[in-house]
Structure formats: C-alpha cells, structure tokens
Amino acid sequence: MQAICAVATAEGEAALAVVRISGEDALTVAEKVFTPYGKSVREMAGYTCAYGCVFDGGERIDDAVLTVFRAPHSYTGEDCAEISCHGGRYLTQRIMRICCDCGARPAERGEFTKLAFINGKLCLTQAEAVMELISAQGELTLRSANLTRQGALFGRIQEIRGRLVTLLGELAAWVDYPEEDLPEVGEGSVGSTLSDCLDDVEKLIRGYDNGMLLKRGVPATIVGKPNVGKSTLMNMLLGYERAIVTDIAGTTRDVLEESVRLGDVTLRLADTAGLRDTSDAVERIGVELARKKLGESALVIAVFDGSTPPEEEDRALVSEIKASEGKVIALINKSDIAADSGYYELCAGLPYVIEISAKSGSGRDRLEAAAAELFGAAGTDDGLIFVNERQRNCLGRAAEQLREALSAHETGMTPDIVAISAEEAAAALAELTGERISDSIVSEVFSKFCVGK
After folding, report:
1. Do 291 and 224 touch, CB atoms closer than 8 A?
2. Could you tell me if 94 and 61 are in contact, meaning their C-beta atoms sit under 8 angstroms apart?
C-alpha cells in the first residue's frame, strides 16, 4: 500500500510543524526527503530521533528532526516517520510536496486513525475518542475523551453484550435441544438480565445529553427586574464590556447572547430585558423575548438587587422561575454595598442562593461551583462517559430491542421470540464498538476527522 503523508499540526505560522508519513514505504520516502547527521534513516531504530536536513533534490531547505516509529509499535501499526520542521505555511507545504514526489500521497481525513483501527491498534470507540480529545472544551470533556480512549466505553459495552450473549446461548440451547436434560432458563433470570442491560444502556444514553450540554454549552438566561445588575453580571462573566450598563431602567431591550466559560462549564448565556409590566411597546417586546428565553433555558440565573427590599416584581419572578423547567441559581447582587434585605426568605426552596457583586466579581467562585454541581458530571467514571451521535444511535436501537425482548418475555412469548430481539440488541452494541460494522459507516466516522490525524 502506498505511503500517506499529511501536516499533523494546525495550519498557520508557528515555531514548529510536523509532517507525518505512514505506510510500508514510509521510511523509504523519509530517506529521500531527510538526511540525518549520522546514521541513515534505514538504520534508525523505532522511537528514536535524528537531527538533520530536509532536501528538495540537491537543495537544502530546512533543518529538522526526524522521529521513526517501527511497525507494529506505532500509532497506525505501520512504519511511520515524523518530520519536525519550522512552522511556516510555505515550508510545510513544500515538504509535503517533496514527500509526494518521493512516492507518498496526501492522506484523507482521519486516515492515520483509520489505519490504527484497521490494524487493531484502536477499537472504533477509542478511535472516535481521538477527535473528542482534540475538541475537548474543558476538564470534564477532556476526562471523558481520555476515559473512552483508554477503553472505558468499549469495556462497558462488552460487559453488557457479554451478558446478552450468555443469555442467548442459554435460550438457544433450551430451544434447540428440548430432548436433552437441560435446565430451563429461569423466568427471573431472563427478566433481570434484560432489565439490567436496558438500565445500563439507558444510563449511557443519558451521557449523550450531558455531553452535548458540556460540548455545545448550556442554554442559560439571566433574568430579573430592571436595574438589578443583569448586564453588569453579563460583562463580568465575559471579562469585557458587551452589554450597555446605565442607571436608566429598561436599558436592555433586546436579547444579548454570548458563550461564557464558568469554570469547566460552558454557558450559551443570554442577557434579557428586565421583567416588568411596561407601556413602552419596544420594551414590552424585549420582556416577551425574555420570558420566552426563560422557558427555553436549561439554566436560569435570577438576579435580585440586595441593596433594596424585595418588591412585588421580585416575588412574581420567584414564582415564575419555580414554575420553569430549567435549573435555577438565585443571585443576590450588590453584596459590596449592602447585605441581604429579605431575599433569602423570598428565595426559600431554591437550591442555590448566592450573594454576589457583579461590579467587583466577588462571589463568582460560588457561582462557578453551583454550575459545576448542576451540570458537571457525577463523581464516578460512569457519569463521565459522553457518547457521540453515532454511538447514541446504536444505543437507542439496542434499548428499543431490549424493551421488545423484555415485553415479549413478560407477556409469555416463547424463548425463541425473546431471543430475536435480544440478538438484535447485541448486534447494535457490536456495531457501536466496530466489531460488526460496514465499510461505509467506517468511512463516514473517519471523514469527520482532521487530515493529519
């Protein structure tokens, strides 16, 4: 198979760049491109580096370092070579062109990782975790990607599938050899196995929703009556002046939306118009938009002015947010100039009530801690496995078949009928791990990768 090559580092000018070559002829290509100071490329052992020069014909174009990885002890399972050169756009593209002139071809998206999968270096879930690792936006998504790359998801799926395969073997033996003195599969054992497998599959499906919130950002809305400091809070969380702040009530009339990092949680945060009854037609539209956002948000940050006693608008807001489906954090703002004036009593029953100064930033750490408790993963590794869309689809099909198998068993269907749905569930799980998957799906998975990975 012809060697492949790609620039494995981000495009642009940088101190260093890496050109990766993989394939049976990778070292032959590298030898034509790179001349080390010392032993030849062919004499280099795996996991060793050499300093030397990159040549284009007889022209020396760069000083570089070559790293050699010998099959099967490489990322792809093939012979690999990586040229670490200076990170200029023209220079890296020229080295790529030289590699192609010397017998390699440009790699397709994800082709290096696809080779690692084909050559048994990674299972499919581990391969997919590589891109999750690259795109991780925080500690929780990074930890999830590392757990999956280390085989945690594969292990979980194999354990579930193993229980199903054992059950299928028992059902098949009892159905196919009725004349043998085989113990009938216990009623309780069939139901409990199917139910336990379904519970484990559904737990992983919930990980998809958690992961999407962390990867794309939690839809969040700042609400409160006018002039309580909502826009000041927005600016404080962003770290720059985005929203206009004045002493005039009703300054914010439209919805301002920005992405905000709150510790390890990313918020798709909306600053809205103050909630109040108003005769101003434009402001009334803003209030309606604010209420619409409140209903759509997974997190509601309710802001109260701690320098003044609660008013009817504050009481109405508390009733409204208690009726909403989103999780709620109540902030008693302006803690730098006044203590609580009755808001703890007003907000009784809400899970988080935090004193904060949007002006000085005091209390932000407690807000971050609350967001982490609400949207961070559970403390166990189980809660940190965030499956992707393809994996979610496989799990969904497995769950549907497990429900059908459980229903067939509970309504007294024969074991062979139960086995049909259980076998389909096991097949869906095998597709998830890549043990039973078509070439077209493999190609689709790796087409989402960057070229150099």
Report:
1. no
2. yes
Say if strands 299-305 and 327-333 run parallel, antiparallel, or are unpaired. Answer: parallel
> Which tokens hold the place of 68?
């050699």
CB of 80 within 8 A of CB of 21? Answer: yes
Burial class (CB in 10 A: 0-12, 13-18, 19+), 200: buried
The separation between the first and the last C-alpha atoms of the chain, rounded to the nearest angstrom, is 18
Distance CA 192, CA 199 (A): 10
Question: Measured in whole angstroms, how far is the alpha carbon of residue 433 from the centre of its chain?
Answer: 18
- Bridge partner residues of 441 (DSSP): none
Sign, Cα dihedral of 125, 130, 136, 139: positive
How many CA atoms lie less than 13 Å away from 438 in the CB half-sphere?
A: 3
Please report where in the chains the tokens 């010998």 appear, as a residue. Answer: 70
Kind of pairing between the strands at 265-271 and 327-333: unpaired
Tens place of pLDDT per residue across the chain (453 aa): 799 999 999 888 889 999 999 999 999 999 999 999 988 999 999 999 999 999 998 899 999 999 999 999 999 999 999 999 998 899 999 999 999 999 999 999 989 999 999 999 988 888 888 888 887 777 777 777 788 888 888 999 999 999 998 888 877 766 555 555 445 555 558 888 999 999 999 988 887 776 766 667 788 888 887 777 878 888 888 876 654 444 444 444 445 677 788 777 788 777 765 554 444 444 455 555 655 556 566 788 888 888 888 888 888 878 877 777 678 888 888 877 766 568 888 888 888 888 888 888 888 899 888 888 887 654 444 556 788 888 889 999 999 999 999 999 888 888 888 889 999 999 999 999 888 877 777 777 777 777 777
Which CATH number does the domain 139-211+388-446 belong to among 1.20.120.430, 3.40.640.10, 2.40.100.10, 1.10.760.10? 1.20.120.430
- Give the separation between CA 63 and CA 83, rounded to whole angstroms: 10
Q: What distance in Å separates the CA atoms of residue 259 and residue 266, rounded to the nearest whole number?
A: 7
For the chain, the structural domain boundaries read 4-107, 139-211+388-446, 217-375
Task: Give the fold, CATH level 3, of 4-107.
Answer: Gyrase A; domain 2 (3.30.1360)
217-375: CATH number = 3.40.50.300
